Sequence to fold (224 residues):
Amino acid sequence: MSLLFFQKVVNKSEIKKELKHSFIKEAIEYIKYFLKVFTVVLIAYIFIKNSIFDTFRVDGQSMSPNYQDKEKVYIDKITPKFGEYQRGDVVIVDMPIEHCNNNTDDQKWCFFIKRIIGLPGEQVMIRDGDVFILNDKYKKGVLLDETKYLDGNINTYINVTSGTEEFKSDILQDDEYFVMGDNRMGSKDSRKFGEITKSMIVGKDFYRPRTGFFDEPLYNIANN
Fold:
């Protein structure tokens, strides 16, 4: 015995209505999918920007000629959390408002870009324009060779009016660093505001489009 199946006959208006309904349903599903993907990407971006990598634009001449005004710097925010900063690292420092230039009434902080010169447990001494490091190994101090990134004729004064007066920092504590700008005659740094703490460091330079990945300087003394 054969079974007969009857197909419902529909008119054009019903077909258009069904097609319109399917299109709206698919559009809604697509929007939902897009919002999910966008949300995941946004969360990932915020996490990466706040915890792993970020960009910084140099403002001013305190690190010239090695770092130029308006130059973009990509900074590593996560690696230093699992280790220590090294001498020669170029870091972004979150500074209190009292040390900022051209601050506004609603401004609470600003960012400096500086190079780490003194490490925890050390003292930094400046004499006749030269930088000396004092630590357990070098009780009387050793002249720091900075020719990797500084012209050999550059003098390092406390400021432009200090001449060759001798300067010596306090002994740096476990979480303290002495930082300076490469433009020694035009940089506001630890010679002026003292040591910084590790918590003030936002991250360190690891890549610049102009020069490529950061090249850690080699010094004539140990980096620890």
Observations:
- The chain has two domains: 12-51, 58-213.
- The chain has a mean pLDDT of 82.
- The helical segments are 12-51, 190-193.
